[in-house]
């Protein structure tokens, strides 16, 4: 996919995987819109890459629609990447009682509903794009997690939400194939994102030893490079790709 002259939209683009992806897409020639609930972070990233920022909740229609329209105003919207997500831990039945239902709903709302919100609105816009030489009109990349397959104790909400993201991939790709719009999901393992910075250096070092090779935390720019690789290869469609250094999470 040729990104020069096109636009892209990245949710959760104010930090971590999303910020790295926004930078990579801009370096590849796309004009990027950054959507993030943290308005200041979104504006900082957008300013750094010559893009535009839209503040808002990914699960709400108005800000997502505004972001899609802002991107389309910069050029044909060819790439949309869902990176926004949360990962609070809670046990189904713990010392404090049953899992808080509102917390479960919030995780699913942000991670799954928010991802579908981007998918439906971005794909609808992409279907009206002029086709490129091979008939492709657009690409939606969603972010699951290896927790979708290797969910650990205390991760029921997170694993369920990311499992839902993975499950969206094939039916969405099948439905959008007639328009030349691809859908691919990336399932990262342990990456050094702002969440990791809340841990002690010792804890980060311990987690970094878990992948088989490379035996370290993934780097956000490695996730971003995978997004570009997916964009470059039209055979990648309707699938979930693990990006984890051969890591398989233990139960706890």
UniProtKB/TrEMBL annotation:
<feature type="domain" description="Ketoreductase">
    <location>
        <begin position="6"/>
        <end position="193"/>
    </location>
</feature>
<protein>
    <submittedName>
        <fullName>SDR family NAD(P)-dependent oxidoreductase</fullName>
    </submittedName>
</protein>
<dbReference type="InterPro" id="IPR057326">
    <property type="entry name" value="KR_dom"/>
</dbReference>
<keyword id="KW-0560">Oxidoreductase</keyword>
<dbReference type="InterPro" id="IPR020904">
    <property type="entry name" value="Sc_DH/Rdtase_CS"/>
</dbReference>
<dbReference type="InterPro" id="IPR036291">
    <property type="entry name" value="NAD(P)-bd_dom_sf"/>
</dbReference>
<dbReference type="Pfam" id="PF00106">
    <property type="entry name" value="adh_short"/>
</dbReference>
<dbReference type="InterPro" id="IPR002347">
    <property type="entry name" value="SDR_fam"/>
</dbReference>
<comment type="similarity">
    <text>Belongs to the short-chain dehydrogenases/reductases (SDR) family.</text>
</comment>
